[in-house]
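COURSE: Structural Biology Practicum
ASSIGNMENT: Worksheet 4, Part C
STUDENT ID: 0417
INSTRUCTIONS: Below are two proteins. For each, the amino acid sequence is given first, followed by its structure token string. Answer the questions at the end about the second protein only.

PROTEIN I
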Amino acid sequence: MLGILGIKLRIERENLGLTQEDLARAVGLSSEFISLLELGKRMPSLDSLKSIAEFLKKDISYFIRERETAFEGLFSQKTINTQAKSELKKFKKYCDDYINLEEAAGRRLELAPAYSHLSPDRLAIEERRRLGLGDSPIRNIFLLVEMNGLRVYRQSISEECKISGIFIYFEIKEAAFALINKNLSEGEQIFTAAHEYYHYLRDRYTDPIIDNPDVFMEEYVSLYHPREKFAQTFARRFLMPPTKVKAIIEKDMRSARLEFEDVVYLKRYFGVSTLAMIQTLRELEYVDYSQYKEFQALDDVAYEKTLFGRSTGLDSVRKAKILPSDRFKSLAVLVSGAQKK
């Protein structure tokens, strides 16, 4: 609990742009004591914790509650209908099974750093640098995020549930999970994975996050919590580094106006959805608003098939209702073999 309290305290303090000295003065404690709290080396008295919580506008329970009850928070959300709750129960079972497999095999994933103050653009750059990616396309986002502590489960979820992705973190177990709706196109799943990875890096200690399809639309994302806009920006920068996009366009295409075939080529190169590629090109001012709306209205799947013989828009294993990660399947085989001996 000390570790959880310390991490949350640091994140909330930094979110307000306060130093340890600033917080200490505001709540009548010493900066040394605040430092020890953030390092998880001291337990505050109830009065001290109450003063800190009131100043940060948080309930005391926020700093000490266990995330093992995270799914209860998901099930209680008013936006979750009966059908969605049924799908979430499958996801909960996967999380429980995964954690049990890791404990049985004695193999736990290390967490990636938790960032608290970087802008989405800067965070994408720093995380790419940390992972040694340069500005090359990410060929397997699902494997990449999983090996960096975000366990991924792809599950078919009906449109009526209004779920594209979910992020959830179990604090006591230090285990993070992302649910990706497998009914999305392959490119959309990739983009959703990057979006949930931002929540993992930046929003780890908040409540579970459900992302519905509107969150991924520029026309609607501003209606949601600001973190969704940040996650969108991060996902685009992480998957499609502007330096690489610009290099390809300026060295290869060299045209004053991009055509739709250029967009399709770029989206295949980066392995993302057509919409994500168009949004990025508009941000970088290679596409104006009229082109943006024009390209959105085109049938990109048919266009891509005409140009390249096949489309990357559909998941090649889409018939499967669920898709556990390769690591999960590997652990299951390992534990099963050990139990038979």
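PROTEIN II
(use this one for the questions)
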Amino acid sequence: MIAVEQTGHDEPMAFKVTITEGGDQSIHHVTMSRAHFDQLGGGRCSPSRCIEAAFTFLLQREPKEAILGNFDVTIISRYFPEFERKVGDYLPRA
């Protein structure tokens, strides 16, 4: 389960993401600029839902323990170049 809490509304926006699998949890602190949110499909969902989609994408490629504890969403593309092209698959249809 992925729980996303928006902790900051300034620029960049900030989020606390808690991933729960079985009895284990991991906590991640993530930032995302409004411009990057718009680029990833901001018109289709809330910022929190966009972060949830990013984590769903990540969890299909690596275990929660491999996900950085603090990062900006832009870094995902460094590890997974297909991220910006594929993240829309995890967002609601317009």
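ANSWER KEY EXCERPT:
Q1: Residues 47-59 form the longest helix (13 residues).
Q2: DSSP finds four helices and four strands in the chain.
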